Amino acid sequence: MDRSARIALGSVVVALTVLALKFLAYQVTGSVALYSDALESIINVAAAAAALIALRVSARPADATHPYGHSKAEYFSAVAEGVLIVLAAFSIIREAIPALQNPRTLEAPWNGLAINLGATLLNGLWAGVLLRTGRAVRSPALLADGRHVLTDVVTSVGVLAGVALAALTGVSWLDPALALLVAVNILWSGWHLVRESVGGLMDAGVDPHTENRIRQLLSTHADGALEVHDLRTRHAGRMTFVEFHLVVPGAMTVQDAHAICDRLEEALFAELPGVAVTIHVEPPDKAKHHGVVVV
């Protein structure tokens, strides 16, 4: 089991622990807001399990039917997580509206808040682990899980503040009203997660900063070539694919052209670990006189 899979398995354990603590807080208080916070943790469990499965699938090597590997499996996990977040939001709304119409006094609010605070601290620490590891290994599944857990932490902090305010003031409708705000926040985060993941499935290009860096590398390491044009990029899970046409002098030998290609590939590998590079070498008459200027 590689590092990503171990972290994903840890996410399942942490999510189950946080879920148990948050539902205990809800049982102690009867707070709809704390219930909404606990319900989002059910999504954390499902999302962590989906991420674990996706990481195991994406780690499989390329085969006859999947010559480019299985790295896009992680995007399916992220899309599924976004859909689950949206479903959780509608479940919260279903519980909050009746409670808003007939608000009730909270029971033992401070005990429940203390339990929920412990769960929130645990979640916050784990969100940091997920985001650091996701960036290090370039994993969309871990990054999506980390962002979701971080959203859960922010939501929990708001819930804690709101429930404490309701307990201090005795204004019962604050609790279900806060639950509705939580639902809106969850819907917003779910929409962004689905949009980003669909972009990956649709072969969206790299971000502008990364593309500019790729262009700089091609410009400074293509000495001996005449032109680089038709640069295309896309992400597929932890893989980044870079394709371009390289125009070389007509009298250049195949060996010399190949040396330029090797130099370009090495520069890109150093900048983007796991990159897959495809270079189409062309003669001078194929030049388009635009694209990347060779320094």
Automatic annotation (TrEMBL):
Superkingdom of this protein's organism: Bacteria
Keyword Transmembrane helix (UniProt): yes
Pfam family, one: Cation_efflux
Span of domain Cation efflux protein transmembrane: 11-202
UniProt-recorded name of the protein: Cation transporter
Ranges where the Cation efflux protein cytoplasmic domain occurs: 207-283
Similarity comment text for this entry: Belongs to the cation diffusion facilitator (CDF) transporter (TC 2.A.4) family.
Topology relative to the membrane: Multi-pass membrane protein
GO MF assignments: cadmium ion transmembrane transporter activity; ferrous iron transmembrane transporter activity; zinc efflux antiporter activity
Localization (cell): Cell membrane
Phylogenetic lineage: Bacteria, Thermotogati, Deinococcota, Deinococci, Deinococcales
GO-annotated cellular components: plasma membrane
Regions crossing the membrane: 7-26, 32-55, 75-93, 113-132, 153-171
GO biological process: intracellular zinc ion homeostasis
UniProt entry keywords in alphabetical sequence: Cell membrane, Membrane, Transmembrane, Transmembrane helix, Transport
Organism for this UniProt entry: Deinococcus terrestris
